[in-house]
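TICKET #2291
ISSUE: user wants both folds in one file
ATTACHMENT 1:
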Amino acid sequence: MWTTASTLSFLVICLGVHEAQSEIPKRLTCDPPTCLFRDLHFKTTEELNGLMIEFDSDYYNTLEIVDSTIPIISRAFVTADVQVLNITKCNLYDILPNTFRKSDELKQLYLDGNRLQKLYHGVFIGANKLEEIKITNNQLKTIDLEAFLGLEKLKELDFSGNQISTLPSDIFVNMKTLTSVTFNDNLLQQLDGGMFADLNQLEDLSFENNFLRTIAANTFEGLNNLNRLILKNNRLESIDARAFAPLTNLTVLDLSGNNIKTITKDLFYPLTNLKELQLEDNYINDLEENVFERNTALERLDLSDNLIPELKPAVLSNLTQLKYFFAGKNLLRTIDVNLFRYNTIMEIIWLDGNLLEKLLPGTFDALGLLWALNLEKNQLTTLDGGLFINLSELKELNLNENRIQELKAGVFKGASNLEKLYIDSNVITVIEEHFLDDTPRLEIITINDNFVTNVPAGLFSNQTKLLEIILANNYIKDLAPGTFDNLQESVTRLNISENLLDMIDGAVFNMSNLDTLVLNDNLIDDMLATALESLPSLTELHIGENLLKQIPEAINKVTNLTYLMINDNYITKVNKGQLSQMKKLGYLSLYDNLIESIENGSFQGLDDLVWLNLGRNEITKLPAGLFANLTNLQKLFMGETNFSASNDAYFQSLKALETLDLDGNILSIIGADFLSGLTSLTQLRLEDTKGVFNGSHFKSLKSLEFLTLDNSNTTTISEDFFAGTPNLKSIYLTNSPLIYISSKAFSGLKNLTELYLGSYSGELKDIVANNTQLTVLELKEMNFTTLSDHFFSATRKLESLTITNNPNLSQLKPTWFKHLHHLTNLDLTNNNISHINPAIFESTPLLAELFLMGNPFKTLEKGMFQNVPLLKSLDLEDTTLSELPVGIFDGLYKLEKLYLSTNNLSHLANGTFRQLHSLSEIYLSNNSIENLDPFLFADTPRLKIIDLSYNKLSSLDDRLFAHQLALEELNLSNNLFVTFNLPQMSFAQTLKTLFIDSNMLTALKITPQLEELKADNNHITTIEVVNSSYYKLTTLSVQNNNFESISPAYPFYNLQELSVAQNTIPGIHLPTIVSRLPRLKSLNVALSAVATVGSASDVKQTRLKVLDLSNNKLTAEELEKVKNLPRLEAFAIGGNQFDEFAADVVLNNLPKLKTLGLYGSELTCGFTKYIEEIAKELHFTVETFSGTEQWQTKCREAEAEQENGTEN
């Protein structure tokens, strides 16, 4: 019978006994309503001897032990009465023979998150009624052939998240009752033929996230009743045409995330009951017409993210039950008008991310039940009338990121039930007034990121259900009264941010139900008092990044407002009463204004305010009682405000405050009571304050959980530093000049999970000896040569350990890592370690990230990484390596990122990377490589990023990247290439980014698919490109070449960043540049001998934010043409041929200007002072030589000369 002793009291006693190394608990009592135990800690198997559990079988059938230390399964846990045993996260590392000999009633066994490494022959003997075994997220490497001996009723097996690389071919013999087998997230490379032959009742089989490469003909023999087969995310390249022959009852097949290139025409023939087929994220480049001929029951087919150039109608013609079809991210240029002719019950079609330029009327005529159509990220230029004529059930249509120029009336005729319409990021300039007349049930429309200048007054005249309108990032200067009149009672959210609005007309916003209005990043400098009067339901207003110099009266009249974002304006002062009527305001941002003062009482009446951001202003002093009325404030942000803590009473009234951010303020003098009274504070940020902190500052912060003191001037962490903050979970104390840390500084912090320390010049004692919950520890810039053997003994939950930038650390002790079984991240960057004993990693089998950069290894010991098979990222940069032994990376099947830059490598042998089947990024820059073996990367088909910069390569063998299925980024900078012809490369279709600067190029040819190109410091005069109807290039840099014009960039209409600096370009024509490159945000033509900017005054509607014309031959007259750039933020014009210019003409037309660069100009002293006065008035930064000794000397000479002239 169970006793009535309190479990809580009992556990407290047990833990106390354990810590005192006294009597080990021998009797555990189940306390109703569950038999659940936590925090039991038995160091050795001997301590479990004689253990008993009071377990009433009439009341319980389940025993659970979690978050404990249990080395083995005690027989006390597996008595005859236990039906369900769950031992989770208990560091269980072994199951002894005969453990289950008396487990007559055990049916379910769950051993998740432990350290088991092997299951022995007959390990479960005695548990004859076991139906389910789940041993997931352990460290299992081996399962003996007869591990499941005697389990004649077993139905479910799950061994996910282990390190199993092979399975005995007869492991499932006589296990006829199994219905579900799961081996996800292991290291399996093959499945033996016939291994499932006895499993004729199996319904569910899953091997997701393994390393299977082939499937043989008889692999699935015997699985006649299998319903679901998951082979997702393996490395499958070939599947025998007969492999699926036994699977006649299969309904779900997932082959996604493999390396499949081709599919044999007979592969799916036997699967006549198949309903769901997942083939996405492969490399399929062709589909035969009859490939799905017999899969007539198919309801879902996913072909997305492949390389399919064409879909013939016959591919889908037999799939009359198909409802969901996905073919996005392929290379489709056209869709045959008959493709969907027989798929009459189709509901969802995804064709996003292809190269479709046109869709013919009739393409969707048979799809009367279609409700979602995604055509995003194609090259569509028009939508022909009649395309949607039969789509009466269509509810969602996505046309984002195409090249549609006009929105014409009649386009959506037939789509009368359309509810959601997305047309973002096209090149729309014109919207016809009756464009939406055929979609009366529309609820959401987004026309964001286009070039619309005018919204027709009658556009929404037929809309009565519209809820959300987004017209952001266009060129709208004003909206006609009546535009939204028909939407008075429907629209709740309107976004017209990033336009050119300079005023808000109350007659336009006549919408009684509007609750959210977004006006960010316009040119609004004031509002009429009546501007928002017609919005009685408004609760959320965003008006950041405008030109407001004060808080408009109109805002204060919106009495239902709960959310006000008025950040990034030019407000200099907050006056009492400006916010007084907004009694319901809960969130207020005044971030990044120019506020110097806030009157006392400014926040009076804001009783509901819970979130306030005053960061990045110029507040040096606050009235003592400013926050007195904010009794419900929970989060206060005051970073970078020039605030100084001159008064201890600032925050004491904020009893509900949970977060306080004072980052970036200089708090050199801080009173001891500065933070007193903040008993609810859980997060405190004091980064970059230069303050000297001690325990007295935090003495009352009993609820504090997060504290950052990074970059302070704190030197001492005494024993009582954190005495007032017992609930701290995260501490950041980096980049501070620590010289003393008490060994007991953190001992009282029982909940501490994250600790970041350094630099530290003192002796490092056992500072974390009592922090058993620690999961992250960083020791940065310390000077210890070693640590005690038991330094990490208590931190057994540690997942991330960082010991960096310590020149005195040359050796690692295996004893440090003995108990770090949960470690997944180890960073040892920039120490002085020359050798690592592989035995260190025997205790860290879960390691996923290992950073060894900046240590003088010179050589790597073979087998060094054999104990870390789960490694995903390995950094060996700057480790003086001169060679990599073949096989050094063997077994690292899961490695995704490998860093080998800045070494002395000159030769990489074939086979060096032979087992890195998951490798997606490799960095080999700054070595001495002249040639690469043509088959070096043959076993790394998933490589997406290769960095070979700063080597001595002059050519690439055609075979080098032939096995890379989807190479996206290639860096060849600082090599010896003379020509580069990308279209001839094997990876031409998939490459998105090419860096080839600082070579000796005289010719460069690219593909339309390329999105980013950097070819600085070469000898090219133009960029050749394959002729195409589309180009994806968004970033182009060709600095220091032989260009004579910007015109070679004109075909790339999607360019957002263009740099042609240091060429010889006599003149540019800004109107043409803006017209041909309408999305351009940054243009750099510095140091290019430019003498004219063309008729720049004709420039209209541009997105240009950065313009660099410095160090050219521009005169003041030419410069004065540059205006009407309403979004320009940075303008560099120094070093041209003027000493002054009509500053008011230019600068008054640049309302968003933040930085004016005049370095290099020989400006007169008077003009320099004048320009600085304008900069102060218009609130931008001007970069000149003002204040330098050179400038002062020049001005003194000029003044003296002027005085002499006056005297004469």
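ATTACHMENT 2:
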Amino acid sequence: MYIGDLHIHSHYSRATSKDLTPEYLDLWARKKGIDIVGTGDFTHPAWRAELAEKLEPAEPGLYILKKERMIRHSCAAGSPQPRFVISGEISSIYKKNDKVRKVHSLILLPSLEDAEILSRRLEAIGNIHSDGRPILGLDCHDLLAITLDACPEAIYVPAHIWTPHFSLFGAFSGFDTIEECYEELTPQIHALETGLSSDPSMNRRLSALDSFHLISNSDAHSPAKLGREANLFDIPMSYDGLYGAIQRGEGLAGTIEFFPEEGKYHFDGHRKCHLCLSPSQARQYNGICPVCGKKLTTGVLHRIEQLADRQEDFILPGGRPYENLVPLPEVIAACMGSSSASVKVTRQYEHMLEELGNEFHILRSAGLDDISRIGGQLTAQGIRHLREGKVDWRPGYDGEYGTMKLFASSELDSVEGQLSFILDDNGNENLPSLISSIPDTASMPNPVESRLQEMSASRTASDGCAASAGQMVPSGQTAPDGLTAPVGHTGPNALENLNQGQRQAVESISPVTAVIAGPGTGKTRTLVSRLSYLIGERGVKPSEITAVTFTNKAAEELRQRIRCQLPGKRSLNQMQVGTFHSLCYRMLLSQGISLSLADEGQQQECAAQVTGQFSLPVSPGQFLSLVSLKKSGIGTISGPAVSSDGETEKKADLTEEAFSRYNELLASRNLMDFDDLLLKVLELLGSEQKLELRKQHFFYLLVDEFQDISPVQYRLIKAWNKGGKELFLIGDPDQSIYGFRGSQSNCFDLLCSDFKQACVLRLRPNYRSTPEILSAALPLISHNQGEPRELIPMMGHGSPVRVAAAESSLSEAIFIAKEIGHMVGGIDMLDAHTNSSAITDTPKSFSDIAILYRTNHQARLLEQCLRKEGIPYVVAGREDYLEETSVQGTICFFHAIASSLPDKEDSWSLTTSLCRRLLGPGHDFEALKGQFTKRVKRDKPWKVLEDWMKALNLTDSRAMDTFLCMSYFHKTMEDMLTTLTFGQGNDVTRSGQDSCPSSAVTLMTFHASKGLEFPTVFLYGLKQGLMPLKSGSGPVNTEEERRLLYVAMTRAKEELIITTSEAPSPFLSEIPPGTCRMEQARTPNQGGKQLSLFDFMD
């Protein structure tokens, strides 16, 4: 018979002992009497390397510590050397069926080679380097599928299945059935790990678990905790023997269990209020702490009762036996009245091991006379109680271990200081009522007494009573203004789900309809319903419709939503949906116009020639910005030169000659820049006589985000609409944030002056944000010119807007990272245990959270802090790494071979010349062309880039590493290049780690957040100089900066947290004090050592 503890951790896991090394695991397994021990943490590459160095193969599929590494100790001298089996635990945090799930999985593998294979697969999904127990935003169903695909002999076991915060059946983030989690792969699950707070008899109250084998392990975070729970195996010593026992039950003889009452989560309770409640008592209080009014932590016993279909005394016929034990140091401590970690208990423990043998032998089978002779009579009596099950407990709750009561007072007459272990004087061994742990309400302060009275009243009130005046409306329910929130389309008539203003907009037959739609007023829904109404109700052909969006992502969302509204309508593919530039590009191609778009590197090269030729006091990048403004219709090509430190230098006059020379250089290379696409189409439309181009798609033209168009785009709208039937524009002048590109907040006024017959409608009901968020944002934007802004909140009340002041930008970033950990219910069990008061009752998914900031440079500290906390994240928007020469050269090369430029000798020659300048002269680009051309349309871009970086010795380039992180979001290199060419705003996204996480926090600038929404939004770095942003390029456009902040604030649906440091932004004074809650952004080391950036370096 062998004893196995298969679920442990290494010193690479968070909150674990530094002694969790192969040497000490071997030593403590010998002390405990464990024959097979898991390695833990196989996903961590450094731990795998350490295992490979210190272990050697033993029986098939098992390993043993090398003899020269063994730690010799007298208290483990007689024990056989244990075997190691490769094991690890994966933490999955993801969203399924509209609920955040947090489930831990135990995986056993037959070899380190298999661990390497599976780890590579998981590395492509999430960060497995920062923690021995990695956090992946991966559905457990998919994790199981990947595991079995990588290693069919793997053993997959849902870990500690009842733990409230992180488990299969957890009360806060688990499932009600195994099938809900694993779906069609449920038959691949053969065993379940019970966890410390439950034992097999509790689990057998669920008939749905009858077919599963129950195993138990310690989940040890230090060597001394090995064997708290373990398994009894009657098997051949091999991995195949283990596989048969766990997967088929062959040789699984039973388990060794904690007393479940000792587990941290057996009962319900609230640790902060020192309140421990049985399930029935918790139900009396409706799951609310009667002391503080917060939600109780639901314990394992309560959760089992929720799902059980059998009585408590049910015994499964043929069920495997199990033993309840307590670690020997705890028994000794109970006898001595000391802590189990005290020096005298440790000495006695080691003395007993030296004289009697390993711990399991002493607890399970050593003679009581021998135990009495070596350890004393009281110790022998305590072990007798254990073997007979005569142990009384105050059960564990809300992260607190249960308290053991092993002796009656009559047995402790000769022992002092053991009151916490004594039963009552009558020797009563029954579980005492825990109602005594609830404070006496008669002696409570008034707030608590009032709270109890409110709870009592709520339990006796009729369920059908009317809401009292001023009662808050829960989020998502109907507000009392007779306005119904839009819901999903459930019938053939989508109009029935629109409010009055939306319906008017959708049904308008005016030649020009302009809809002013504030944030959260259902702008996209109105646009989709308009399209659906045109096609489905009015019979407009999709081929006659063009919808213009601001980003490619918005275009794709529009396509998907219209397909959902009009399923099965194949002609929808004939409808044009896209950005201004992508539509113009397609239009030119359809006319047979040969063109190649200049990438950034090619534009920079032409700009550098012009600035050098004319001795212009601007950089190539600044020159291109001014040229773009000229082409966008701003009308001027002069502007200030800006030095690297942001100070304004002398005025630079960019002559028509320089402007023309730049265009000549592009034309000589047969290239267009981005702005030329629009100008070329305008030129084409201006020369057209019979409007044939417009008749193809522009009878019905719809434009989203109208407030952000430039003058040239406005000209294009009017040109497209010439000869058309209906023009529909929707936007919000208060969200006009692209003045530097030529957009104007008075665009609707200009429209009305050009189209006197325009029908202007305004949408006011807001379905996105809570009243608290709107009451902070609307007064801010009302400081701009015009009437006070009005939005009608349709969502229920929520949390007040928080404004957290910190000492520095670093402190802000640390605060945000820690807050996110609390919001998701804790990144791991340590967070859940130690920060339970800060953790929310309804944890969020990582993807529910966004951090917004004014400039890209602010993201650096945030990224470091998120990586430090092991929080997965993505960064949306264009960043500086795209301007690095290595990246520009790479884009130039692949853009050329994707556009078939190698077939055009002159163009290819110019491309290779530019690549040599950007990437270095020592590369054979002809050979590289042959190596990569076929892979552009076929291979994953990250694979292509990895090989490219090796071929050009770019593996040490930080910019290329960042570029590689962008490639994870694209299917092919061609797809990635298209995004780089036409992508706007948040179209360009990169991962914050070496993978593409399925659930991650989003980082982006205020500008890039336009059009998006998140349940929780952090606004980072609102201080003077950044908001409003001051630079050397001229006076601050305060009104546009205020609009930008308004946009950022209204991305939040439920929770908005603003952080500031040093000198706060003056805009914060424009938010009414009563609409937000001021607080100090506390960081972990406040009051201790000075925080340093070096603490957060990778």
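RESOLUTION: both attachments delivered.
EXTRA DETAIL ON ATTACHMENT 2: Confidence is low (pLDDT under 50) at residues 414-492, 637-651, 1087-1098.
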